[in-house]
Each structure stands twice: as C-alpha cells, then as structure tokens.
Design brief:
CATH class of one domain: Mainly Alpha
Shape: extended
Protein name: 26S proteasome regulatory subunit Rpn6p
Organism: [Candida] jaroonii
CATH topology of one domain: Arc Repressor Mutant, subunit A
Radius of gyration: 31 Å
CATH superfamily of one domain: Winged helix-like DNA-binding domain superfamily/Winged helix DNA-binding domain
Strand content: under 5%
Structural class: mainly alpha
Keywords: Proteasome
Helix content: over 70%
Number of helices: 21
C-alpha cells in the first residue's frame, strides 16, 4: 500500500488527539475531492475510501448515529467511482458501524432500506442482496418476524437459482432463527438442516460454523436433549473464543444453562475453572452460578432472589429466560408436592404462607398440576382447601374385556369370510 497523503495524515493525527471536529472537516475535504489534483486517480480513490471508513468509525466511537446516517447518504455521490466490490465493502462497513451504538436499530433499518433502494437504482445486485440479508437480520432482532421472513423467502429463491452455497448457509441459518423465535421448532430444524447441508459442500468460516453449532444447541435444548445441546454449545464456544468474538460469553452461558437443567452443579465449577474460561468471569457468569446453587438446593426463595438480583443478566436473553421459566415451574412443582405430601386436606392459605407466594399464584399452579395429573385432588375454593386423593389404581379388567371383544370380532369376521367362500 502506498504511503498516505499529508491531508490524510493530518486528519488521522487530529482524530487520535481527540480533535474530532477538525478531523471531521479534514476527512470531508478529502471525500469531497478538494485535493484531487494532488494525487493520481487510484491513490485518490484509496484516500477517499479510507476517509469514509475512518470517519464512520469516529461517529461510531462517539455514538453519533445521525451523523453516520448522513455520511452514508453523502457518500453515495462518489461511490459510483469505485469498483462494485469496493462499493459493497464500504456501504456494508458503514451500516455495520451502527451495531455497537445502543438504541439505534430503527435508524439502522431506515439507513439500510435507503441503501437497498440506491443499490437497486444503481443495479448493484450483489450489494442489494447483502443489504437485504442484513435488513432481514435487523428486522428479526427488532421482532418484525413476518417482514424478515418475507425477505428471506425472496433471497432463498435467488441464491438457489445462483447455486450460491455460502450465501445460502447464512440465509437458511437466519431463517432457522426466525422460525425458532416464532416457536415453529420443526421448520426451524428443517432450515438448520438445509444450512448444514449447504455448509458441508463449501469452506465454512469459523464464526459461521460457530453460529451453526450454537443454533443446533439451542434447538436440542428446546427438545430437552441437554446433553447433546452442551456438545454443540462447547464446539460453538471454541469457535467464537478462537476468534475473540464477543458472542463467546453468551454461548458459555448456554453451556452452563444445560448443566443447570441437568442439575450437574459440579460440572459447572469444572467448566468455570478451565483456563480458556477464567477470563470470562463477570456478573453474567455470577448470575448463572447463583441460579445453579439455588436449583441444586431446591430453594425457590434463593431462585427468586437470584432472578431479582441478576434480573438484567438473566432476562435480557430470551433463550435463557425461556428455560429459566421452565426451571422455575419445575422447582415450584417440587416445592408444592413436598408441602402437600403429608396431607389429605390442607388449607390453601397454609401452602401460600409456607411457600412464600400469594394465594392466587398458588391456586393457579395447583389447578395446572391437577389438570396435568401431577397429583390427584380438587380445589375447594369455597372453604379455601386443597383435598388430595390417593392415586387411583388402574383396573385392567376393562382393557382385558375390550381385547376379548376385539379378538371375538376378528374370529366372527374370519368365519363369515369362510362361509361366504363355501357359498
């Protein structure tokens, strides 16, 4: 690479010294071509590229999303001078600069849609497809699953016609995530199977393979196969960790989640003591350890305390939140069964007081348990009692009688067929 011009060196020095206002002016001077006569055309285009990307990073670091969106708009006037691949690289980089700026997903979606329209007008198909995939991912993160899926379906048709396996992997993986968010697990698994099939026929980058393994782990956890889920999460963690990707800690939490669901607290301590994991010690990991301890002790009170203390860490991730809701229900059932096991009839107020929940919550959970046949009983809400019955013994006489009638029916049918043949 040729050495940078004095103008670019000056802009970089101003930025490194924190003089962002002057640096911004200097970068715009280069972008607008004020020194076009000073440099050969190829080098000047390179200088413009660096200026656009570095200015985008300044807006990203200083949390200035409006200026970043305006930079994307202003840059379009000169992007036509670049090769198509270079144009795609610059636009994608600027759109991704929004990723680390909090609460800007709406602005990022708007900027991406404008770029897609511009790409269509400029007949930049490759860029348009990449931006549509990014838009679909943003809509998925924003909860607009229907619109996200619509874009995915169009992209799938295009990539299948082009037989673009590498792009198909990304699209099918995102499709799997969307169906999972919609709680359509069979379709989510089918999309993931398609993504893995496409990935097997190409070189799959480490991060993309880690994403595939993570999604496989999530779907196995949904089916309560936590042992297999842990294996996938472990492979995913290794992939992310080898690339120093920030998602590694999320996958580590999923690994701990599977061990909690299997009630293997000792395994959790072994995982956290591993040399590759020690650097991830944080409040997120403390939250998982706290839940593990509460579940191991079968203490509903400790569990609720952990949920309150680490509310942000445990409820911000929908996957962990979903499984912990299931874990809480199991723990609540176990505690209720322990309280009522020595009674034939017990006051609901006594159960409520013992377990530390309000009467309405206790009634609702007991009703659900009776309907699910966790135990046999009836709620006498007039008197405020729970009446527990012994588990009814199964009388096999009825089933034996039905089998006898069925066999006799078969005999009669055979005799009728033989009689018909004789006639």
């Amino acid at each position: 690479m040729s050495s940078p011009s004095e103008s670019l060196i000056k802009a970089r020095d101003l930025a490194s010294n924190g003089n962002y206002v002057e640096a911004e002016k200097q970068y715009f001077s280069i972008i607008q071509g004020n020194n076009v006569d000073e440099l050969p055309s190829n080098k000047f285009l390179q200088e413009q590229e660096f200026s656009i990307l570095e200015l985008g990073k300044i807006y990203q670091d200083n949390k200035q999303p409006d200026k970043l969106k305006q930079l994307i708009t202003d840059s379009r006037s000169i992007l036509g001078n670049f090769a198509k691949s270079k144009t795609a690289k610059i636009v994608k980089a600027l759109i991704e600069d929004f990723d680390t700026i909090p609460d800007t997903i709406g602005l990022q979606i708007s900027a991406t849609k404008e770029c897609i329209d511009w790409a269509v007008e400029s007949k930049l198909s490759f860029l348009r497809q990449n931006l549509q995939l990014k838009l679909s991912d943003l809509l998925y993160k924003n909860g607009d699953y229907k619109d996200s899926l619509k874009i995915i379906n169009e992209l799938l048709r295009e990539y299948k016609k082009l037989d673009d396996k590498s792009s198909l992997v990304e699209v099918q993986l995102l499709e799997s995530k969307i169906y999972h968010a919609l709680r359509n697990i069979p379709k989510s698994r089918a999309s993931l199977t398609g993504a893995r099939t496409s990935a097997n026929s190409i070189y799959c980058p480490t991060i993309l393979q880690a994403e595939l393994d993570c999604q496989s782990g999530i779907l196995n956890a949904e089916e309560r196969d936590y042992k297999t889920a842990f294996s996938y999460f472990y492979e995913s963690f290794e992939g992310y960790n080898s690339q120093d990707d920030s998602k590694a800690i999320d996958v580590l939490k999923y690994m701990l989640l599977t061990k909690i669901m299997l009630n293997l607290v000792d395994d959790i301590n072994n995982i956290l003591s591993h040399k590759n994991v020690v650097k991830f010690q944080s409040k997120d990991i403390d939250a998982m350890k706290s839940i593990a301890k509460a579940y191991s002790n079968r203490s509903l009170k400790e569990f609720e305390t952990s949920l309150i203390t680490y509310s942000k860490e445990l409820k911000s991730d929908p996957i962990i939140k979903n499984h912990f809701n299931s874990l809480y229900d199991n723990l609540l059932e176990q505690n209720l069964l322990k309280i009522i096991e020595s009674y034939n009839c017990v006051e609901l107020s006594h159960i409520s007081k013992t377990i530390g929940l309000n009467l309405q919550q206790v009634e609702g959970k007991l009703s659900q348990m009776i309907l699910d046949k966790v135990f046999y009983g009836v709620l006498d809400q007039g008197n405020g009692w729970l009446i527990i019955y012994d588990e009814p013994r199964k009388d096999s006489t009825y089933e034996a009688s039905l089998d006898l009638v069925k066999n006799l029916s078969n005999v009669v049918d055979l005799l009728y067929e033989k009689a018909s043949a004789l006639n």
